[in-house]
Amino acid sequence: MKLSILGGGGFRVPLVYRILAGGPAAGNDAGLVDELMLHDTDPGRLDAIARVLADLPLPDGAAPPKLTFAQSLDDALSGADVVFSAIRPGGTAGRTVDERVATRLNLLGQETTGAGGIAYALRSVPAALQIARRMRELCPQAWLINFTNPAGVVTEAVMPVLGQRVVGICDSPIGLVRRAARAAGVRLQPGSLAGVDYVGLNHLGWLRGLVEDGTDRLPGLLADPGRLASFEEGRVFGTGLLQSLGAIPNEYLFYYYFRREATLAMAGASRTRGEFIHEQQQELYARLRSSDQPFREWEAARRAREEGYLAEARVDGEARHIADDAGGYEQVALDVMRALLTGARTELILNVRNGATFPQLPADAVVEVPAVVDGGGARALPAKPLGLHETGYMSQLKAVEREVIKGGHGDRDAALRAFMIHPLVASAHISIRLLEAYEQAHGYQWS
């Protein structure tokens, strides 16, 4: 089996390689892939990550897959059984522009949410469509596992090309479920989400129930401030808000429920999150290419990056508790791949076709919900009906996503409408200024 990673010079690629290489922690993923091919449009980044992989310590008995490097997109796709798409059109420099343009207009400057998320999607969608079309020509039976952001938008954009052979992933929902279950004393069964009631879109979701032995344990968790304070989302949102909602939101809803506070925190920062990442990676990748201990350099940078994530949501500079995270997107992607290739059924929270899950949304819309994955693909599991609160947010954001996809196909008016109707922008005048600023910075192509 051949796995190709697009964006193979990405910061988290060593985590994928380490799991695939085997050893006690790899579980069923060891030996699943014979060849791991990396492709990146930046040769310097690819060279740096190659040096980390060569220096990565592996346990006794590890059997890493053959590591190869593709010179072109077509080389990477030819003969692939699975493709991981983790590209970042515009790079980290593009992200810093997205964030700063929004901040200068007194808007939230965040990579995947609000103005910055739309700007990013207008670059990601055309690039993802190019990949999907080449896959249809070069490896039509391959599976695309997408974690190119914004993941829900990109997944929905390529479904007309690839059909059910694309699955979108994000680690935020399953991380939330695992943390909340641990705090509630609920034991999740491996490969099962029985009793888990999670609904939403990518970066916009809510955990509404945790049923064990016929009893919903979530109300008891929400009534206990001490247990809520034991995990990330409980600390971010606070007991009062969570009890009012009767649910635990995905961490990205911080930007909606605390819009003013997040905007002020970001505006007052000496540099944006994107600027921090950009500067860190520029320095890090240069060091990795010359260091005699590239793995140690990479590991230290990874921990620093994780600890600074969503810093604007935490009080007094509190560091993120890395132990809260039970495996990142690399493990979710590998779990999906294993189910697709072996047919062994598993359940995960994924970006999949809505179908009849939520009648309020189009059948071909992508939603982020518990899904079953096997050799036939990923399909949404039945879900309880949406309340008005969830319906309002999801309908409005789905309308934004639909306009963004049209914008990615070259429709400038649709791109403008996406800014206008987004709840974190919601101003025609500001939307015009945003689009003009992003056009000048990124040179979007319109039909």
TrEMBL record:
InterPro entries: GlycHydrolase_4_CS, Glyco_hydro_4, Glyco_hydro_4_C, Lactate_DH/Glyco_Ohase_4_C, NAD(P)-bd_dom_sf. One of its GO terms (biological process) is carbohydrate metabolic process. Keywords: Cobalt, Glycosidase, Hydrolase, Iron, Manganese, Metal-binding, NAD, Nickel. Gene3D superfamilies: Lactate dehydrogenase/glycoside hydrolase, family 4, C-terminal (3.90.110.10), NAD(P)-binding Rossmann-like Domain (3.40.50.720). The record marks E111 as: Increases basicity of active site Tyr. Its cofactor is NAD(+). Mn(2+) binds at C170, H203. Transmembrane segments: none annotated. The keyword Metal-binding applies. One of its GO terms (molecular function) is metal ion binding. Substrate binds at R95, N149. Pfam families: Glyco_hydro_4 (PF02056), Glyco_hydro_4C (PF11975). Residues 198-425 form the Glycosyl hydrolase family 4 C-terminal domain. Belongs to the glycosyl hydrolase 4 family. PANTHER family: 6-PHOSPHO-BETA-GLUCOSIDASE (PTHR32092:SF5), 6-PHOSPHO-BETA-GLUCOSIDASE-RELATED (PTHR32092). This is 6-phospho-beta-glucosidase.
